[in-house]
Design goal:
8 helices; single chain; mainly alpha; about 190 residues
């Protein structure tokens, strides 16, 4: 990476971190660009070089989290022991990205995360499992499974992570593996 790219990423990360700190205290709808800029140590004009508004920054945060999820999905699909890899990937990602998940899974912010997750993950799953893009069945199966996983993780976060991440990952894998495999086999 060149110096400008590194600086750009560091600046964006400062804005993301500032947003996370502020949204822990109040809803994103009440957070201003000025507050984010002040907390990040930049002026508002710098913020606007990278983002249109607070919601654009929230969408960027969702994209960062989904890119990590996407990388883990690709690794899981390629792994010999997919179930074990899923549990490890979910657990690792949760530990590294917990602050992002806390923000993204808040009820007001969840639509940003869901939209981004569907946009990135559904085409990946269609490609990796060689599914028909034009099949309504495929669309509904993927929609169902992605929504179910997001809902379960959101519920777990809302309940204060009342079971270990590894246990939740195993539970999600068990619930998803059999039903997903059967549903997509019926479509191919």
């Amino acid at each position: 990476m060149n110096k400008n790219t590194i600086q750009t990423e560091a600046t964006k990360q400062a804005f993301v971190d500032a947003l996370c700190q502020l949204v822990c205290k109040k809803p994103v709808a009440r957070v201003t660009v000025k507050e984010i800029s002040d907390k990040a140590g930049y002026n508002r004009s710098t913020f606007y070089q990278y983002f249109q508004d607070v919601y654009d920054l929230l969408d960027y945060l969702a994209s960062l989290a989904v890119q990590r999820i996407k990388a883990n999905v690709i690794e899981n699909i390629q792994a010999q022991y997919v179930g074990e890899a899923f549990v490890q990937a979910f657990t690792q990602m949760h530990h590294e990205e917990a602050k992002y998940f806390d923000i993204l899974f808040q009820p007001d912010n969840l639509p940003f995360f869901i939209r981004c997750a569907k946009r990135e993950l559904i085409p990946l799953l269609i490609q990796k499992f060689n599914l028909s893009e034009s099949s309504l069945r495929t669309d509904y199966v993927l929609e169902y499974h992605l929504s179910a996983v997001i809902s379960v993780v959101g519920s777990w976060i809302a309940k204060g992570r009342n079971i270990p991440a590894e246990e939740l990952a195993s539970l999600i894998r068990e619930m998803s593996q059999a039903s997903f495999s059967q549903a997509v086999k019926s479509d191919t």
